[in-house]
Specification:
By secondary structure, this protein is mainly alpha-helical. It has helices at residues 2-26, 39-66, 69-91, 109-122, 126-149, 154-182, 193-200. Helix 2 (39-66) packs antiparallel against helix 5 (126-149) and helix 4 (109-122) packs antiparallel against helix 5.
Length: 210
């Protein structure tokens, strides 16, 4: 009788323990809620993914044309920026506008037109190519700063801030190459000269890994 009682108690305890464990295993399958994105945040994420692709594609092609190390070095960084934005697209379940697009091909018509224009200039000469780098990085600084103001989500803000840090370093690199080639100070091409000077005249920054 004692043996049977102990067996019954053991069975009851086993059932009591196993039931919540079983329920706990099932819980991860439930969908977790995501922060709500505004229309502007969605638009910015899609745009930034392709803007970083545009920068990478231009630098890869200009490196093939002129062989300047600055283009290959920064192209690698732009790839990491693309990957960082893609991670956000996946987090917020947004379709990737760069999916299936080869080098020089874009979903956004404005970025397609900008790529074509910049490549035409960049093929004119090595100095023109370096100036294209300046145009891209100044544009990135402007666009990222604007996008940061339009987001309320911490993960998006952190990613944009890191990309902005990278763009400032890239601008410093292109400015240094242009100054070395021409012997003259870098002239702003997109944003106000005082904003460019504030970047160019300050030291390189240590940016977080995207």
């Amino acid at each position: 009788m004692l043996t049977q009682s102990l067996s019954a108690i053991s069975l009851a305890l086993a059932l009591a323990v196993s039931t919540p464990l079983h329920a706990a295993k099932a819980s991860p399958t439930a969908k977790t809620s995501l922060p709500t994105l505004s229309a502007a945040e969605k638009s910015d994420l899609l745009f930034m993914r392709e803007e970083e692709k545009m920068a990478r594609d231009v630098y890869l092609m200009l490196h093939e044309t002129w062989g300047l190390p600055v283009f290959s070095n920064i192209a690698s960084s732009e790839q990491s920026h693309m990957d960082a934005v893609l991670k956000l697209l996946r987090t917020y379940r947004l379709a990737d506008p760069a999916a299936g697009r080869v080098i020089g091909e874009f979903t956004n018509p404005e970025l397609q037109a900008l790529y074509d224009t910049l490549m035409a200039k960049g093929r004119l000469g090595a100095l023109d190519a370096l100036q294209v780098g300046g145009i891209i990085e100044e544009t990135d600084v402007r666009d990222l700063a604007a996008a940061i103001k339009r987001t309320d989500n911490a993960d998006i803000d952190a990613t944009y801030e890191n990309l902005l840090c990278g763009s400032r370093n890239h601008l410093r690199a292109f400015a240094a190459n242009i100054e070395s080639m021409t012997g003259q100070a870098y002239t702003a091409l997109v944003i106000p000269q005082d904003e460019v000077d504030a970047v160019v005249d300050s030291p390189l920054e240590k940016c977080s890994t995207p």
